[in-house]
Amino acid sequence: MNKGGEGINSKPDFTASKQVLIHGATPSERQQFDRLNKMHSFFNSGGKTNAPELMKTFGVSDRTIWRMFEILIDDWGMPLVHDKKLKKSYYSHTVSDFPGRMATEGDIFTLMLANGALRECVTDEQRMIVSKTFRKIADNYQDAISFDFDYLDNCVSFCDTAKSIFEPNLLQLLLRCIAKRRKLRIRYDTPHQKPVYRTIDSYHLRKVDADWLLFVYDYYRNKVIRLALPRIHEVEELDETFIRPIGFRVENFLKGAFGTYAGEETYPVIVRVTKREAHRIREKIWPCQKKLVELPDGSVELHMELSSLMDVHPWILSFDGQAAPVAPFELQTMFENANRNGMSLLQKIQMEQRQK
Predict the structure, then answer these.
(1) Residue 73's pLDDT band (cuts 50, 70, 90)
(2) What is the pLDDT of residues 176-188, one digit of tens each?
């Protein structure tokens, strides 16, 4: 260890040191890391001590203390020095970052789950980048933990019915501009309308089922709106930056939404689901759910308070006749029209088939 510095007569106090719980580590690993963590916090706060005092504090041998000194210096790169004259050890200066911490199997499995979930959200090219990054992080821990990547990949999977198709590298560009608060110039293609060029401030990216949405301040409409990534084209990153509103949270923007459409009204919504499909309702907590009422015949009624009916309407239709709106009247009308339109389309298809 390095020489130098002046010692002081002080008794080490480790009671206020920050402790870290390591899930998945063995008891001996937890204990060793706990000691190292306490020593680091003590030295980094200006404390000075020596091996005999630490032996008494932790109840370990001289050899264990010197081994921990080596870990602090050689493995963690801490500025620990020893004053031979006063027989005290201390940090020559404070450090701002906590040293690398032990990784456990629990850490790796958590990374694996995040890796698997994110890979299902992106394109094949982006998926390769995500997997490469995951392996790079996990490789740092393989001296202590051994496992089979391919085996783990076959243990857990994530799947969407469909995937959004959008321009390559758009996700990374948007994330960078959100982080750096850079304005963007884009062309946005709304279905059945002429494309519009917009200048936007990007606030938040959100994945809802198979859809990627970008919440932005739109200078074309002068308000916060949501954009679908597949409709964003000709993206230009501008030199200008923007100030994100203090306290903006997408959860507040979507308050009262069943999915991604929020409005300014308040609708007390009641949906009845038959006994055959009632289990699908019981097995989840639904957006803006107020209560779930069990009916004598085994069916259920889901009560919600929504600000828009746009998302809940197609959701009811997905039950294939096993669900229907009880309230409000507006939702019942939408339901009736959808069934009528569906029957009209079916009759048209059947007529075309008979004419062949």
Answers:
(1) confident
(2) 899 899 999 999 9
How, if at all, do strands 2-3 and 80-83 pair?
Answer: parallel
- pTM of the predicted model, to two decimals? 0.60
Is residue 140 domain-shared with residue 211, that is, in the same domain? no
Q: Residue range 305-317: average pLDDT?
A: 94
Query: Which CATH number is 332's domain given?
Result: 3.30.70
The verdict on 182 and 226 lying in the same domain is yes
Query: Which residues contact residue 33 at a Cβ distance below 8 angstroms, ignoring those fewer than 6 apart?
Result: 20, 22, 25, 101, 102
pLDDT at 10: 44
- The parent domain of residue 19 ranges over 2-91
In a domain, 75, yes or no: yes
Q: Are residues 145 and 70 in the same domain?
A: no
Q: How far is CA 40 from CA 17, 34, 211, in A?
A: 9, 10, 46
Please check whether residue 216 is in contact with residue 225, taking contact to mean a CB–CB distance below 8 angstroms: yes
More confident residue, 158 or 7: 158
Question: Which pLDDT band, with edges at 50, 70 and 90, does 209 fall under?
Answer: confident
Residues 249-257, mean pLDDT to the nearest whole number: 89
State the total domains in the chain: 4
Q: What is the pLDDT of residue 3?
A: 36
Is residue 282 within 8 A of residue 292, CB to CB? The reply is yes
* 271, part of any domain: yes
Tell me the per-residue pLDDT of 96-113, one tens digit each, with 9 for 90 and over.
Answer: 765 555 555 566 666 666
Asked if the structure places residue 82 within a domain, the reply is: yes
State which of 46, 68, 91 marks the end of a domain: 91
Q: Which of 178, 246, 180 is nearest to 212 (CA)?
A: 178
251 contacts 186 by C-beta, under 8 angstroms: no
CB 294 within 8 A of CB 279: no
CATH of the domain at 79: 1.10.10
